[in-house]
Amino acid sequence: xxxxxxxxxxxxxxxxxxxxxxxxxxxxxxxxxxxxxxxxxxxxxxxxxxxxxxxxxxxxxxxxxxxxxxxxxxxxxxxxxxxxxxxxxxxxxxxxxxxxxxxxxxxxxxxxxxxxxxxxxxxxxxxxxxxxxxxxxxxxxxxxxxxxxxxxxxx
Length: 155
Hints:
The chain has 155 residues and is of the alpha+beta class. Helices cover 31% and strands 28% of the residues. It is built from six helices and seven strands; from the N terminus they run E-E-H-E-H-E-H-E-E-H-H-H-E. Helix 4 crosses helix 5 (120-127). The model is unreliable at 1-14, 27-37 and 151-155 (pLDDT under 50).
């Protein structure tokens, strides 16, 4: 542009890297994408009670089948939970741990302290309200450790 003088000089970035000023913006975008390449955001639906328990900080694990969709989740990823039935409210959590099990029975043994009011058989029966024993056998189960990353939309 008229009146502006462009300085032809390399710009030193962090870690001793040099980038020409004309390429600085593109470099910054690519570097940020590379730095966060392993972080992903996933979306899932939740019924009211577990959704509210996450908001209140009393739910530290989300229990799912370890199906193809859940196998893509990594520690450090984010999950957006949308509250059923209308999906109008959402919360974002960060994945803090992943624990896979062959079935709900072995999962209950490991996570029993998270469900002090539940007897094992009743807890497993509750899981079967969402998942079939055949799917449990096919995929195994997954306890996703979570922490709230963002308050719900309506608060």
